[in-house]
Amino acid sequence: MTARPALDLAAISARYQAALDAKPSKGGYSEKGIAALQDSVCDVPDLLAALAAATTVGPSHRETQSGPRRMSDTHLHLVATTYRQAWSQGEYPTRAVAQHFGVPHSTAARWVMKARENGQLGPADGRRGGES
Predict the structure, then answer these.
(1) Is residue 121 exposed (0-12), middle (13-18) or buried (19+ Cβ within 10 Å)?
(2) CA–CA separation, 59 and 66 (whole Å)
(3) CA-to-CA distance for 9 and 14, rounded, in angstroms?
(4) Which is more confidently placed, 56 or 70?
(5) Which class for 72: exposed (0-12), middle (13-18), buried (19 or more C-beta within 10 A)?
(6) pTM of the predicted structure, to 2 decimals
(7) DSSP alpha helices (H): ranges in 89-125?
C-alpha cells in the first residue's frame, strides 16, 4: 500500500469557505463562484480516503463475545429499582425501564424477566405487572 501525502487542511478549508461564500443564497452564480465550488468538491474524495485510513474499525462487541452474556447483579438491581419506582408512581414500569436505560421495550421486558428470575423482583401480579 502506498502512503498518501498529508492533506493540507488549511488549503482545503479555504477552498471550502470560498465555495460557501459563492452559494446562490448570496446572489447569482459567478464564474469565480463556480470555480470555487468545483475546486472544493474535488477535495471530497481525498478527505473521505483520509477519514477511512484514519478510522480503524475492530470487531464488534458481539463478535468478540464467547457464549451468552450474563447481566450483573448490579444491573439487575438497577432494573428492579427503576421498575419499582415507576410502579409506585403509577407509571408503566417496563416502559420506564426502557426509557431510563435507552433500550427498546422488548429489551427492558427481558431485563425485567431476568430480574425476576434472579430474585431482584418478585413475581408479577397477574397481567397487571408489579410484584405480588
Answers:
(1) buried
(2) 13
(3) 8
(4) 70
(5) exposed
(6) 0.49
(7) 93-101, 105-117
pLDDT at 104: 92
Check if the beta carbon of residue 83 is closer than 8 Å to that of residue 115.
Answer: yes
CA dihedral 88, 94, 96, 98 (to 10 degrees): 160
- For 56, phi then psi, to 5°, come to -105, 125
Instruction: Extract the C-alpha cell encoding 109.
Output: 421486558
- Cell for 9? 487542511
CB atoms closer than 10 angstroms to residue 94? 23
Q: pLDDT digits over 57-98, tens only?
A: 555 555 555 555 677 888 888 899 999 999 989 999 999 999
- Which cell goes with 84? 419499582
Residue 54's Cα: distance from chain center in Å? 20
Q: Which three cell numbers stand for residue 120?
A: 431482584
**How far, rounded to the nearest angstrom, does the alpha carbon of residue 113 sit from its chain's CA centroid?**
26
- Pull the grid cell for residue 5: 501525502
